[in-house]
From TrEMBL:
One Pfam entry name: DUF4403
Protein name (Swiss-Prot/TrEMBL): DUF4403 family protein
Matching InterPro entries: DUF4403 (IPR025515)
Length: 449
């Protein structure tokens, strides 16, 4: 089986060479918290319990001072800052304090009752979202101190009545944030989804008949969380040794999900993959021999034909050994620089010319052999087609990067750039080195089943 590999991990793809450094895919995972915020708004009471009900001040005997209040909240306001969820609301309230006198309560003071307007205060709570190395989700809640927008501060017998009035709504906000925590945990379910995605990422993806993409994931690193609007984003950087292999379907060796490596530095989304496309000298020799066929070369001195062509390489050059029969009988050797033709997706030989030894050997035949069509024909014929085009591989890789990993998790990406770097001349083959660069991301759809 002949193999094209993208920083290949499997031994038969390396051909005895040291494995190159791994590539990475930085794939942002975006979790839309908008539906969860809407649920929090819908389920959080607009008023707390006990409105407009006289309540004794705690710690004092029956028949002692009491208070009553009314309060309603305005819509909840959510802000995402990095990995922090800030939930705020403005509350409108009034309250009154009094003394119980039998069945009658004598008012001793009020705030926000007509002819005054409702007083306002701002309540808030923060939730800091974080991941643990074992792929758990942690939410740390921090209530904010109430901010009194238009002051109304009555302390009666040592009690701050305002705090008593706001306590019920503060409790409602805390419960709403705790419920939000459960929703985020349920929506993401990170560890089972990460395990499912990790397992799926190890499976070969058939790009075309007999062409398979292997990601070969090794390690996952996480950058700090970011946010935009109502979307929370965290970017795992997946260390991979991807391979594109031809032939039989590869059989992956299962690897367990590794611990999460938490990185303090941001990770830019994107990927850069090296492609090594091999063309063995044996395969190139067969191609050239077939292209030349039994084509005769007519010259002013007579006719000859190429019976056999052998391609080999040494010291950065490609050599052609040609066995001729006819007016010229013997072996000629030409050499040229191998280069990759991006337009055709083929390997070509530039500056093709006879070697010094061959020039000395054909001197006896005269200038007519130099002036013949042999070298020109070889220059045209020395276009070695690889089994699969590198240009086609770009599109196939793009297709392989757009697929579901699980019902709730989908991989999507695009190949932005395709760059051919160099052609290496090795002991048994030519190797074309190129790179694919692009972007890739992972989307989470909590509602998918």
């Amino acid at each position: 089986m002949r193999t094209w590999h993208l920083l290949a991990l499997i031994p038969f793809c390396l051909h005895g060479q040291e494995p190159p450094p791994p590539s990475t895919i930085a794939a942002p995972i975006r979790v839309d918290l908008g539906p969860m915020f809407a649920t929090a708004e819908r389920t959080t009471p607009v008023t707390p319990q006990g409105v407009e009900t006289w309540t004794n001040l705690p710690g004092l005997a029956q028949g002692s001072p009491a208070y009553r209040f009314n309060l309603y909240r305005e819509p909840l306001y959510f802000v995402l800052k990095g990995n922090r969820v800030l939930m705020h609301t403005t509350v409108n309230y009034w309250f009154e304090v009094g003394l119980r006198m039998g069945s009658y309560i004598k008012s001793m003071g009020s705030c926000g009752l007509p002819p005054e307007t409702f007083r306002k205060a701002r309540l808030g709570i923060q939730a800091e979202v974080s991941l643990t190395p074992d792929w758990g989700l942690d939410l740390k809640l921090t209530p904010e101190e109430p901010l009194r927008i238009d002051g109304c501060h009555i302390t009666y017998l040592g009690y701050d009545i305002t705090d008593k009035v706001l306590a019920g709504m503060k409790d409602n906000l805390a419960k709403a944030t705790q419920a939000l925590q459960g929703q985020i945990q349920d929506a993401t379910r990170l560890r089972p989804r990460a395990e499912a995605a990790w397992l799926q990422a190890q499976q070969p993806v058939e790009l075309a008949p007999g062409v398979f993409l292997m990601l070969n994931p090794e390690r996952v690193r996480l950058s700090p969380w970011t946010s935009q609007g109502k979307v929370l984003t965290f970017t795992p950087e997946i260390q991979i040794r991807p391979a594109v292999c031809l032939g039989e379907r590869p059989q992956p060796v299962p690897r367990p999900l590794p611990p999460l490596d938490l990185s303090p530095q941001p990770i830019a989304p994107g990927f850069s993959l090296q492609i090594d496309a091999d063309l063995s000298y044996e395969h190139a020799s067969r191609q050239l021999t077939q292209q030349l066929g039994a084509q005769p070369f007519d010259t002013e001195k007579g006719r000859f034909e190429v019976k056999r062509a052998v391609v080999r390489g040494k010291d950065g050059w490609a050599y052609l050994d040609l066995d001729l029969k006819g007016k010229v009988t013997g072996r000629l050797t030409l050499k040229g620089r191998p280069a990759f033709n991006e337009a055709l997706g083929t390997l070509v030989l530039e500056d093709l010319d006879y070697t010094l030894e061959t020039k000395n050997w054909i001197t006896s035949f005269g200038e007519w052999l130099y002036r013949g069509t042999l070298r020109k024909t070889l220059t045209e014929k020395c276009s070695f087609f690889l089994d699969k085009s590198l240009k086609d591989l770009k599109e196939k890789t793009k297709a392989g990067l757009n697929r579901p990993l699980t019902p709730q998790v989908a991989l999507s990406g695009d190949v932005d750039a395709f760059r051919v770097g160099r052609v290496e001349v090795l002991e048994d083959r030519f190797k074309v080195v190129a790179r694919l660069e692009g972007v890739v991301q992972i989307g989470v759809n909590p509602d998918a089943r």
